[in-house]
């Protein structure tokens, strides 16, 4: 049995981890850590878990004994605990952005502080599960952000094949409000959000350098996308519409085969048939990423539509998928939920 702890236990990411892990056949949730809720029962905060007899506790590194810890916290929290946890032989899966960026100056620009020393950053494996093969001897996973997950899964096959103009990539992405967390903000206050639709963090969203970094690594040279997120008055889901231009003549059939070849062995990626485009509700509550493709063979441009549940594939589900691979399990273990529809 794999014993795990969850830090940031009163947030949406942690609650989604609990929802999924309680049905995992080889995982036992040993700890749920929350500084603000310590010594309180979890059912007092989340009544949908009224049947679960779990108490929030405060993280004390000296007392912790388990196999892995998930950090479902805001950024600049996990990095304070990682050295001591890794030195104890405890694997860490970080759902925040503390270990996603390799350039300290870019991290400081987008996250407001400097990251840990480079030796710790180098230990982190970027856990975009369908594009990451190296899990041997890994102790620290940087779980990708929700927008990068949807965008990178949509764009990676094209970048790897070298068929698009990498200076002309546009990502127009929409997200449900749960991605903003449980903290009350004016932007997510019901009267402000309801019957409203707005772009935000234009030109400065912290997921932009994460997308650029991974695509640049795939391409072997610098890639910079134009990425704009939008807030939609719904609870869950991300829909990323990616616009590309092809460098040489292609057909939609050829591009579809490219995606099918790339993802045929990946159980959580579903490539839609021609003229069948995904919607967020069709993946809600699941670890699936559905991708639809359109190629304008006259203008040699393409539109790739990618949808995920931001709390599952965009956060906790992918974190469990990474945990499965860290411990040599089938990556689907505990993640076979059918999407909730309607």
Describe this structure in words.
The structure is a single chain. The protein has 2 domains: 2-122, NAD(P)-binding Rossmann-like Domain (Rossmann fold), CATH 3.40.50; 147-310, Dihydrodipicolinate Reductase, domain 2 (2-Layer Sandwich), CATH 3.30.360.10. 27% of the residues lie in helices and 20% in strands. It contains 10 helices and 14 strands. The protein has helices at 12-21, 42-45, 82-87, 104-111, 118-121, 146-161, 190-193, 208-219, 252-263, 312-326; strands at 2-7, 27-33, 56-57, 68-71, 91-94, 124-126, 140-142, 170-175, 198-199, 226-231, 238-245, 269-271, 289-296, 301-308. A 7-stranded parallel β-sheet has the order 3-2-1-4-5-7-6. The chain has a 7-stranded mixed β-sheet with strand order 9-10-8-11-14-13-12. Strand 4 (68-71), helix 3 (82-87) and strand 5 form a beta-alpha-beta unit. Helix 1 packs across helix 10 (312-326). The longest helix has 16 residues, at 146-161. The radius of gyration is 20 Å and the shape is globular.
Q: What would the keywords be for this entry?
A:
alpha/beta; Rossmann fold; Dihydrodipicolinate Reductase, domain 2; 2 domains; seven-stranded parallel sheet; seven-stranded mixed sheet
């Amino acid at each position: 049995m794999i014993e795990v702890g969850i830090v940031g236990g009163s947030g949406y990411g942690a609650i989604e981890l609990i929802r999924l892990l309680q049905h995992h056949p080889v995982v036992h949730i040993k700890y749920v850590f929350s500084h603000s809720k310590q010594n309180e029962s979890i059912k007092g905060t989340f009544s949908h878990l009224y049947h679960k007899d779990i108490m929030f506790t405060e993280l004390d590194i000296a007392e912790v004994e388990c196999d892995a810890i998930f950090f479902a916290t805001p950024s600049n929290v996990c990095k304070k605990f990682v050295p001591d946890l890794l030195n104890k032989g405890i694997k860490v899966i970080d759902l925040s952005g503390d270990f996603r960026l390799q350039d300290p100056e870019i991290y400081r620009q987008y996250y407001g502080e400097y990251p840990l020393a480079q030796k710790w950053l180098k230990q982190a494996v970027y856990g975009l599960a369908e594009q990451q093969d190296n899990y041997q001897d890994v102790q620290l996973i940087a779980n990708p952000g929700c927008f990068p997950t949807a965008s990178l899964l949509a764009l990676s096959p094209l970048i790897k094949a070298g068929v698009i103009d990498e200076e002309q990539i546009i990502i127009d992405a929409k997200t449900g409000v749960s991605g903003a967390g449980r903290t009350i903000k004016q932007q997510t206050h019901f009267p402000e959000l309801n019957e409203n639709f707005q772009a935000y963090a234009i030109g400065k969203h912290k997921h932009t350098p994460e997308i650029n970094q991974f695509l640049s690594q795939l391409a072997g040279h610098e890639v910079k996308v134009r990425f704009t997120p939008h807030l939609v008055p719904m609870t869950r889901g991300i829909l990323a519409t990616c616009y590309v231009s092809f460098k040489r003549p292609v057909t939609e059939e050829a591009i579809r085969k490219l995606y099918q070849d790339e993802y045929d062995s990946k159980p959580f990626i579903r490539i839609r048939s021609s003229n069948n485009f995904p919607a967020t509700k069709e993946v809600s509550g699941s670890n699936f990423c559905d991708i639809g493709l359109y190629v304008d063979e006259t203008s040699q441009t393409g539109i790739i539509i990618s949808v995920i549940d931001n709390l599952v594939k965009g956060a906790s589900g992918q974190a469990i998928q990474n945990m499965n691979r860290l411990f040599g399990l089938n990556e689907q273990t505990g993640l076979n939920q059918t999407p909730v529809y309607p």
